[in-house]
Amino acid sequence: MIDGPYFVLTVLGVLGTGLVAGVFCAFSTFVMRGLAALPPAQGVAAMNSINVAAVRPPFMLVFVGSAVLCSVLAVVTFVLWPDEGRVELLLGSALFLFGSFGVTMVANVPRNDALLRMDPGTPEAAAYWPTYVREWTGWNHVRMVASAAAAVSYLLALA
Questions:
Q1: Do the Cβ atoms of 70 and 99 come closer than 8 Å?
Q2: Could you tell me the residue ranges of all domains in the chain?
Q3: Which of 30, 102, 141, 158 is geometrically suited to a Cys-Cys bond with 98, CB 3.0 to 4.6 A?
């Protein structure tokens, strides 16, 4: 059984990845649907506002902090190579680092940046908005599932 500081790190891993999964779940299940139902100019303006607010300390502490924690768990697991929970810990770390943090950097952030460069009231923004919503939400589903699976994997490492 995992114990001591390693136990605390793993519990924090469950908590962090689970919190991020919850945020992504909210966006996938109702926030993006609500924004998509707005006229394009309003949806673009609202999403741009959300994207600016998201990079402030409260969310970034949880999101980036979870990525750092997952990295630490992976390194510690490789160094200690525990008899129990090894596969679950490495899988949880990989799921979050690649499926959540990595997807955010290569799929969601570039779309956010493109949207932010647009004036919400322009025909260009109105034309891009449905594509943005579809693609961004699709990648967000990946992030949600990966984050939730990471939390479950870490939880299984504790069992």
A1: no
A2: 4-158
A3: 102
